[in-house]
Design a protein that fits this description.
Oligomer: heterodimer
Strand order of the largest sheet of chain A: 2-5-1-6
CATH class of chain A: Alpha Beta
Number of helices of chain B: 19
CATH architecture of chain A: 2-Layer Sandwich
Distance between the termini of chain A: 11 Å
Largest interface: A-B, 12 and 13 residues
Helix content of chain A: 25-40%
CATH topology of chain A: Alpha-Beta Plaits
Largest sheet of chain A: 4 strands, antiparallel
Number of helices of chain A: 4
Largest sheet of chain B: 2 strands, parallel
Structural class of chain A: alpha+beta
Number of domains of chain A: 1
Radius of gyration of chain B: 24 Å
Shape of chain B: globular
Chain lengths: 118, 412
């Protein structure tokens, strides 16, 4: 078995503006996904919006500089993740394609294999 | 070392490499290791065949040698290798020892054409590992440096192992989604073989043959799929012309100039039967319609007998299924043959601003030909020059240059 991190990206404004009646449908889709994936979900979290993010880098003198905002300012931001266990990429794709963000027009998911250190 | 043995090994490399590789990869489930073991088997052949003579079935000898080498490596490096990601094999199919070579190649095709790989990587991997071209040859076909192609192939192999792209034919629930990429790659292998992008020869018949063999494998896997039947029909109907495409002097012959008695009647018969079957499926599919167009040409006893109304009607359907500028170009050319060169020029006109056609010499060549028929010698010469500036294949260039001198002579 291998591990894959499923990164959920989308337009935060569109997530914030999601109609009230849409929210329970969206949540139910995630619960259905978790039920289908069963024990293959090793971890999963929804993230607060990037307006709450804090980024740390160092300046040329090696001092740590703290700034407000995400590491990269992009139109589509990381909104959450699942850490999955799957036999191979095809199984990971089959599972991840059930996520509701794959089917919305402003969002999608990225599948990243996790390095296996043995 | 005797020249006979060197020649036999070279011949076996050309003819058998792809099959030896597919069978070895089925065992190693690691493309790099399979490559090393196959390389090693050919090196051993040089020594062993010198002592014992060339075996009756060189391919079988090489496969056994490569697989034995792979088992040795596995045994000695088992501790190290256990931590390395492997190609994921399908446990539900019979082990490689029982599988046929064709099964191994089919699995390899689906691995190489996985949609998680970039399209240009899919084609490169297929040419390298399924068709058995060297990295240098693949680079040459795509007009890029060998080092750049080597890097592209290495990156793709790394993704296959790190992301665990499986080494298997997808199950029935995924097969329909996955077959499109495989067909597109097979089609590209064929067209690359049919008109090699540059060099002194018009075609690479070995690639066209490989593509037809792969299309046949897909047809065995999915006999009722209209797209698969359509692609196989298309390749057969186009390849049926291959003996008639170039004159004895090496000049490219247009469909209108070809000796149709030299077309391969068996291939045409098989292609027409397949396209008839494929067209029964609704809605029509892209390759089936393209094959139907090729079938109209194949069934016309002479060039003037070509049913241009039918061809334009089929291009109309194709343009709906696949709205591509190249299809629009072919449709406009069909209109020119149906309604005369002036109508053809008018149909080509809207395509002149199409950026996708700008690097494509065929638009200029088609305009040049209609202008020539209209005896507009000056503009025709200009259009032939434009076409020449965009064409690298020497056989095609010879054709365009001959036409250019003839319109220049006519205008003088």
């Amino acid at each position: 078995m291998a591990k894959y991190l499923i990164l959920i990206y989308g337009n935060e404004q569109r997530w914030a503006d999601m109609p009230a009646e849409q929210q329970p449908v969206h949540d139910a889709a995630h619960r259905a996904f978790s039920a289908a994936a069963g024990g293959r979900v090793l971890a999963a979290e929804q993230l607060e919006f990037t307006s709450t993010a804090t980024t740390l880098r160092s300046d040329p003198h090696g001092r740590v500089v703290t700034t407000d905002g995400p590491f990269l300012e992009t139109k589509e931001a990381l909104g959450g993740f699942y850490l999955l266990e799957a036999a191979d990429l095809d199984e990971a794709i089959a599972l991840a394609s059930q996520l509701p963000e794959v089917h919305a027009d402003h969002s999608g998911v990225e599948i990243r294999p996790v390095v296996d250190h043995g | 070392m005797s020249e006979d043995v060197v020649a036999a090994v070279a011949e076996a490399h050309r003819r058998e490499w792809a099959r030896v590789f597919a069978t070895t990869a089925a065992l190693t489930r690691d493309l790099d290791l399979a490559e090393e073991c196959v390389q090693d088997a050919y090196a051993r052949a040089l020594v062993v065949w010198e002592q014992d003579g060339v075996p009756d079935r060189p391919g079988a000898w090489l496969t056994t040698a490569a697989r034995n080498r792979a088992r040795d490596v596995r045994r000695h490096e088992s501790v190290f290798r256990r931590t390395m990601p492997l190609l994921v094999a399908d446990e539900s199919v019979p082990g490689p020892d029982h599988a046929t070579v064709e099964d191994d190649r089919l699995r390899l095709v689906f691995t190489c054409c996985h949609p998680a790989l970039a399209p240009e990587a899919q084609v490169a991997l297929t040419l390298r590992f399924v068709c058995g071209l060297s990295t240098a040859e693949v680079a040459h076909l795509f007009l890029i440096q060998e080092s750049a192609m080597a890097a592209r192939i290495t990156r793709a192999k790394k993704k296959i192992s790190a992301a665990r792209i499986p080494y298997r034919v997808p199950g029935p629930d995924q097969l329909t989604d996955r077959v499109g990429a495989v067909l597109d790659v097979i089609h590209l292998v064929f067209t690359t073989g049919h008109t090699a992008p540059l060099g002194g020869r018009l075609d690479r018949p070995d690639l066209a043959e490989s593509a037809i063999r792969l299309a046949r494998m897909m047809h065995v896997l999915m006999p009722n799929d209209a797209e698969v039947s359509g692609l196989l029909a298309l390749l057969l109907l186009i390849d049926a012309h291959s003996d008639a495409r170039v004159s004895a002097g090496g000049r490219l012959l247009l469909l209108s100039e070809q000796d149709r008695s030299r077309w391969n009647a068996d291939m045409i018969k098989e292609g027409v039967a397949l396209v008839t079957q494929a067209l029964r499926r609704q809605p029509p599919t892209r390759y089936a319609v393209q094959a139907a167009i090729a079938a109209v040409h194949a069934e016309a006893p002479t060039w003037p007998d070509t049913d241009w109304s039918e061809i334009v009607a089929l291009y109309d359907v194709l343009l709906q299924l696949w709205p591509s500028p190249v299809v629009a170009l072919n449709r406009a050319v069909g209109i020119g043959f149906r309604d005369g060169p002036a109508a053809g020029l008018a149909a080509l006109d809207p395509l002149l601003d199409e950026p996708a056609l700008a690097p494509y010499g065929y638009l200029s060549a088609a305009r040049a030909d209609f202008l020539r028929q209209l005896r507009a010698w000056g503009p025709a010469a200009e259009a032939y020059q434009e076409a020449l500036a965009l064409t690298d294949n020497q056989v095609e260039r010879d054709f365009l240059e001959a036409r250019l001198s003839s319109v220049r002579a006519a205008s003088a």
